[in-house]
Amino acid sequence: MKKAVVLLSGGLDSATCLALAKQQGFAPVALSIAYGQRHAVELERARTVAASLGVTDVRQVAVDLRAIGGSALTSDLAVPKDRAPEAMAHGIPVTYVPARNTIFLGLALGLAETLGAQDLFIGVNAVDYSGYPDCRPEFIRAFEALAQLATKAGVEGARFTVHAPLSGLTKADIIRAGVKAGLDYGLTHSCYDPTPAGLACGRCDSCAIRRKGFADAGVKDPTRYG
């Protein structure tokens, strides 16, 4: 089994990505990032998800992006609530974290090179998502090209592949794929602004997209809302 580094936040998409990496025959090394996010409960969920899928190699790296700011997820900016689907379909919301996926993939690339792995998995989605520019397929391909140029392994002939298996799927399709792969979505957390008890708010963009995904998939939503 080839090793693969899988970015795991503990959310619906990244958890599905981990399940699919296992399903495809990889030996996943899960990498979670503590970046000062207000929904840090997802880090605990990441460990739970990994354990449920039999993934024992789980790494966590701390990079405090609150020092950069510019996002409602790393500052005191209010998380948008109760937005209409039309509003979510246009523009880039304040929950965008500047350069987040570039930083995350950079860390995953470093770990992969250390492990001798050439496969990276990231759960970005370009269909049912919040308009973040670093979730688009062209970003993934650009980073893949960068990986060949920026690493000792790449210069010496290794071919890195950044897998984004959810990229062209709807949220309903993602949920169906995860259920088929044996993922328990009750262990995951997607909310941007959870209650002090760690329950989902049910009103942010992430909660709205998640809730609709389960409805469209015809799968019972196991999310605990506050």
Q: Keywords, please?
A:
226 residues; Rossmann fold; five-stranded parallel β-sheet; 5 strands; 38% helix
Structure description:
The chain is an alpha/beta fold and 226 residues long. It has a single domain, classed as HUPs (Rossmann fold), CATH 3.40.50. Helices cover 38% and strands 11% of the residues. It has helices spanning 12-23, 41-52, 85-88, 100-115, 137-150, 152-155, 171-180, 205-217; strands at residues 3-7, 27-34, 58-62, 119-121, 161-163. The longest helix has 16 residues, at 100-115. The protein starts with a strand and ends in a 9-residue tail after the last helix.
Q: Report the average pLDDT across residues.
A: 95
Assign the structural class, choosing from mainly alpha, mainly beta, alpha/beta, alpha+beta, or little secondary structure: alpha/beta
Strand fraction: 5-15%
Please outline the major beta sheet. Answer: 5 strands, parallel
> What is the number of domains?
1
Helix content: 25-40%
Any chance you could write out the topology, listing elements then pairs?
Elements: E1 3-7, H1 12-23, E2 27-34, H2 41-52, E3 58-62, H3 85-88, H4 100-115, E4 119-121, H5 137-150, H6 152-155, E5 161-163, H7 171-180, H8 205-217
Parallel strand pairs: 1-2, 1-4, 2-3, 4-5
Helix pairs in contact: 1-7, 7-8
Quick recap:
This protein has 226 residues and is of the alpha/beta class.
